[in-house]
């Protein structure tokens, strides 16, 4: 079956530091890949996505590249801010008949300190 | 106004009680989902519905039931709540048509505590 593995947290960074959150996946086909973000007390929001190999998703200074050869979708940001403190979830969705279901990683909590 | 709303936002109930969590959406999406979130486990799918007459069990449906009253409304019931159902519950929607069909949009969550 499908699975998503992401680095365990919590991750604590100083403001303006570089962020990487690793995500690797196992899927039987060619999935779409997502990063969702959950701010304290809120639901999940789609941060970025990529639907095919070598696509780069980007939003709010965050980026992730769909690497089929390494089955990875690592999240990066060059300079984090205190407002980026949240829990980040990597997820995948199969294409075609299985495209309804999202498979999530366990989440990585990021804390950014001034 | 939020596109996906959940009520109540917080609920404390006792073991054995019946409880219903409600979800409404104004996005016009046909597909709706219920997830639970537990610390360190991510989100797990409880039930999903492709339309009013198409309801399916997810990964962890035991102890739960659902009702799709209309395209915009999807309720989750715990017939006899137990403490290990204490969790954060999320409703989500998606649109099966168009290029964005794989994306899901989440409500703010309901925090349920069973004592």
Termini of chain B, distance in Å?
Answer: 33 Å
Total count of strands of chain B: 11
> Greatest chain-chain interface?
A-B, 22 and 24 residues
Count, helices of chain B: 0
Helix-strand sequence of chain A: EEEEEEEEEEEE
Q: How would you describe the shape of chain B?
A: globular
Helix and strand topology:
The complex is a heterodimer of chains A (114) and B (115).
Chain A: E1 3-6, E2 11-14, E3 19-21, E4 23-26, E5 32-38, E6 44-50, E7 56-59, E8 62-65, E9 75-77, E10 86-93, E11 102-104, E12 108-113
Parallel strand pairs in A: 2-12
Antiparallel strand pairs in A: 1-4, 3-9, 5-6, 5-10, 7-8, 8-9, 10-11, 10-12
Chain B: E1 4-7, E2 10-13, E3 19-25, E4 31-38, E5 42-51, E6 54-57, E7 65-70, E8 73-78, E9 87-94, E10 105-106, E11 110-114
Parallel strand pairs in B: 2-11
Antiparallel strand pairs in B: 1-3, 3-8, 4-5, 4-9, 5-6, 7-8, 9-10, 9-11
Structural overview:
The complex is a heterodimer of chains A (114) and B (115). By secondary structure, chain A is mainly β. Chain A has strands spanning 3-6, 11-14, 19-21, 23-26, 32-38, 44-50, 56-59, 62-65, 75-77, 86-93, 102-104, 108-113. Chain A is globular, with a radius of gyration of 14 Å. Chain B is mostly beta strands. Chain B contains no helices and eleven strands. Chain B has strands spanning 4-7, 10-13, 19-25, 31-38, 42-51, 54-57, 65-70, 73-78, 87-94, 105-106, 110-114. In chain B, strands 2, 4, 5, 6, 9, 10 and 11 form a seven-stranded mixed beta sheet that branches. In chain B, a hairpin with a 2-residue loop joins strand 5 (42-51) and strand 6 (54-57). Chain B is globular, with a radius of gyration of 13 Å. The interface between A and B is medium-sized, with 22 and 24 residues.
